[in-house]
Design goal:
715 residues; alpha/beta; three-stranded antiparallel beta sheet; globular
Length: 715
């Protein structure tokens, strides 16, 4: 590490870079007088935009009442404005005691840097080396923080093109991060950047005239000292600052508080439920002796059913409410501004239960599985299908021979599509999504408690000889796709009753994920009209991460199995399958999620994710991530939207071999055996890792064959 200083000096001299010593003419002529701040609420360290660089302690103020002793202090008048001139409300940020541990660092330089010199996602900066253009340090330990850097691929041109720095693995809560831009960061012409007069004064240890800086001048001086201890001489730094991340009270604290209050309120059997509709074929109805006829109760609907569904139950369940209401404008019901929450009565939320034909035919109680649906969809969107349609949810329930129950992810279900559009027009509306999503992360606990405690005993849902449809004594498991993998990661970390969990095609870090998702393209079209400045867009995406943090899996993944929260099942197991080349959930974010979860990637792998653990065990007896390839291509690096969806996001789940792996993990011995994809002879090259091309069915007749369950032994 100490070699960094002399090597940096040597490289600087060899390249002819300009020294940025503090005794320049700008400072020498102003030895005793601070520079008059042109705008005391605009960050002057880089000087090309009020918000560059974000995040920064420039927007923190002292507050002895918070866990970090700081509070965010964004000036309302300076907040980004939409095309109607309406500024984003600062209130939701100013509640918090620090910035998101998952926030990108957003910078606007006079001209964009040469992208070839940036350690992008294909070659991230994993260690402190003399040629690094950017240095990130943990201020408390002096440790180098790995990162990647990129220019905004969505920018219209160089004038307002953001430089985006993303930590390769998020830092912990209540951490002070130092950011330094060095004279190894060059523009497209190979020229270094000059420090601003304000930063020159900081290099000289002088007041700047900015109260937001001068009130904590010792902290800014400590940044330079820490950089020098790491081996980076201050004469080769043209901008540096620090920021503090929020406390645990503001990351997973609210979700844990809701979880604990909800569990106490619902007990072992749950609160109330109401059946709105029971749909069954004539043959199925005959096997449920207590099911009334439609003439007796109009909630009973006898009709031809989908081949994968013999019985479907739709209804609502009751749960404690921690929002200000149940309407579109509802947000979290904060006590005294947060982070504590107050219960606001209860709420009725929808549920769907699917029973496949093989469970009805067996006349034996099956296992119960909790299911999580995809982005802007719903449990009934995926489960309430008519004959002829193709949906994976009922397909897998039938293949596995289980009863499944699911609810909507409140905040990002199809019913919330208007909220997403509103937020695109006015980012002040974002808490209407993110706060509901945090509430939605704990609602499945209330659903499964009432499903295992009361719904299982419902007279309508009894087989002959008073046998229930499912066995409430068997361990509860979870399977989720897409948003069900993303939010499923958060939910499973909180759920006290789950034993085995599969989060398929998951990622996290919404501020990184959205801009790289084909799902985001329509909303980006809205945002381009309401917030046309591309630098402001990246600022808003980065700022929004603090709001997403309340349920972002990046804050919860390490608590699924690595360091479980209190009051969860012992010996729980989790599996994260990934689809390579995914257009909807970028593999970059899947790798980040895996690093946070701290489970190994099953080896051999398709794509090496630097700093991720791997395992050579086959089968894997424990928690793991598996990379599956449907041979649908990849995407170029960068944050450009995947406007053309290659359908790899959907393809892997329809593979019979994939379903065999999931079934064995959830319902059998818990082992993960990727070699099933070799057994059927469909693998592209007959070698590990598996690569299989699969058609994504549009109609039921296009569906692949049902997998053999249990899977045959591998020879």
């Amino acid at each position: 590490m100490r070699r960094f200083l002399p090597l940096c000096l040597c490289l600087s001299a060899a390249c002819g870079t300009k020294s940025t010593t503090a005794d320049s003419a700008d400072v020498a002529g102003d030895a005793d007088h601070a520079i008059l701040a042109a705008d005391p609420d605009c960050n002057p360290i880089i000087g090309n935009d009020c918000w560059s660089g974000w995040p920064s302690s420039f927007w923190l103020k002292d507050d002895a009442t918070t866990a970090t002793h700081f509070r965010i202090d964004l000036p309302p008048a300076k907040m980004p404005a939409n095309s109607d001139g309406k500024t984003v409300a600062a209130l939701e940020w100013n509640r918090r005691d620090g910035f998101s541990p998952n926030s990108p660092i957003v910078i606007l330089l006079p001209t964009p840097p040469d992208p070839k010199r940036l350690p992008d996602e294909t070659r991230p900066a994993l260690a402190l080396t003399p040629d690094l253009p950017i240095v990130l340090l943990d201020a408390a330990t002096g440790a180098f923080l790995p990162y990647m850097a990129e220019l905004d691929s969505n920018a219209d041109g160089p004038a307002r093109q953001a430089l985006l720095i993303r930590l390769w693995t998020p830092v912990q809560e209540n951490t002070r991060v130092i950011v330094a831009l060095t004279d190894r960061l060059l523009d497209a012409k190979g020229q270094p950047y000059a420090p601003t007069p304000t930063f020159q004064r900081l290099l000289a240890g002088k007041d700047t005239g900015y109260p937001r800086i001068d009130g904590h001048l010792a902290d800014w001086a400590a940044d330079l000292t820490a950089l020098e201890k790491a081996g980076l001489d201050r004469t080769h730094v043209f901008a540096a600052w620090h920021y503090g991340t929020a406390s645990e009270q503001w990351t997973h604290g609210p979700a844990l508080a809701m979880r604990d209050a909800l569990v106490a309120a619902v007990g072992d059997k749950g609160l109330s439920y109401h059946i709105d509709m029971v749909e069954a074929s004539t043959e199925t109805a005959a096997l449920l002796p207590n099911l009334p006829s439609p003439t007796v109760d109009n909630r009973i609907v006898i009709k031809p059913m989908h081949p994968d569904v013999a019985l479907r139950v739709r209804g609502t369940f009751e749960a404690p409410l921690f929002l200000t209401g149940t309407g579109e404008d509802a947000t979290l019901n904060w006590k005294d501004g947060g982070p504590a929450l107050a219960q606001n009565g209860t709420v009725q939320r929808p549920f769907v239960m699917l029973v496949p034909p093989n469970v009805i035919a067996s006349q034996k109680p099956a296992r119960l599985m909790l299911y999580g649906h995809g982005f802007l969809r719903g449990a009934c969107v995926e489960g309430c299908i008519d004959p002829g349609a193709a949906e994976f949810f009922p397909h897998f329930v039938h293949a596995a021979g289980v009863v499944a129950v699911g609810t909507d992810w409140w905040g990002l279900a199809r019913t919330e599509l208007p909220l997403a559009i509103q937020a695109g027009n006015d980012f002040s509306q974002m808490p209407r999504i993110t706060d509901k999503l945090a509430m939605g992360a704990v609602l499945p606990i209330a659903l499964t408690r009432v499903a295992l405690g009361k719904i299982v005993e419902d007279p309508w849902l009894q087989l002959h000889a008073a046998k229930p449809l499912y066995d409430k004594t068997q361990p509860l498991v979870y399977y989720g796709n897409s948003l069900g993998g993303i939010m499923g990661t958060t939910m499973t970390s909180l759920h006290p009753d789950l034993t085995r969990m599969v989060m398929n095609v998951a990622g996290g870090g919404w501020s990184t994920l959205l801009n790289r998702s084909s799902d985001f393209a329509p909303f980006l079209g809205i945002i381009n009209g309401t917030y046309p400045d591309k630098f402001s867009q990246q600022m808003l995406f980065a700022m929004s991460q603090s709001l997403w943090d309340l349920s972002d899996p990046f804050n919860f993944a390490d608590h699924v199995v690595k360091s479980p929260f209190a009051n969860t099942q012992a010996n729980r197991r989790a599996l994260w399958p990934m689809s390579m080349g995914d257009s909807q959930v970028a593999n970059l974010t899947s790798g980040m999620l895996n690093r946070i979860a701290q489970v190994p990637v099953s080896s051999p792998v398709f794509e090496v994710w630097p700093l991720n653990m791997t395992t050579a065990d086959i089968p894997v007896d424990g928690n793991t991530c598996v990379q599956w390839d449907s041979e649908r291509g990849t995407h170029p690096p960068g944050n450009g939207s995947r406007t053309e969806d290659n359908l790899s996001h959907y393809a892997t789940r329809w593979m019979p071999e994939f379903e065999q792996m999931i079934w064995r993990f959830l319902f059998d011995d818990g082992l993960v055996e990727q070699r099933y994809c070799l057994a059927g002879g469909r693998d592209g090259d007959g070698k590990l890792p598996c690569n299989l091309q699969e058609v994504v069915p549009v109609a039921y007749e296009d569906s692949p064959p049902m997998p053999v369950i249990p899977p045959p032994p591998i020879k």
